[in-house]
Amino acid sequence: MEQLLQQHPEKRGRVVLVQIENPARGRGKDVQEVQSETEATVKRINEIFGKPGYQHVVRIDKPLQFFERSRCVTRNITKVCEHA
Predict the structure, then answer these.
(1) What is the DSSP string of 26-82?
(2) Degrees, nearest 5: CA angle 54-34-73
(3) What's the predicted TM-score (pTM) here?
(4) Partners of 17 in the beta sheet?
(5) Which residues contact 56 (CB under 8 A, 6 or more apart)?
(6) Whole-angstrom Cα distance, residue 16 to residue 48?
(7) What's the CATH class of domain 2-83?
(8) Could you tell me which InterPro entries the record lists for this protein (predicted)?
(9) Which distant-in-sequence residues (6+ apart) come within 8 Å of 84 by Cβ?
(10) Model confidence pLDDT, tens digit, residues 29-39
């Protein structure tokens, strides 16, 4: 996403990545490192390219049922399409 926004500034404010994470099955140091790195990356992209009330990366890190994932993605696609 970061590379896309750097190479295509016309996409800024028009695209969103919805990152729905599956809950980690373990709790080891490696899992924590990956979660911290993901959180830092999302924060960096949103701070550099985001605007008040608009984030390019939406991170959902809680368990969701299938219908909730479908609804979330559909709702966000609709919002993105409205900006096109």
Answers:
(1) --SHHHHHHHHHHHHHHHHHHHHH-BTTB-SEEEE-S---HHHHHHHHHHHHHHHHH
(2) 40
(3) 0.72
(4) 57
(5) 1, 5, 12, 15, 16, 17, 45, 46, 49, 50
(6) 14
(7) alpha beta
(8) Glyco_trans_20
(9) 14
(10) 788 888 899 99
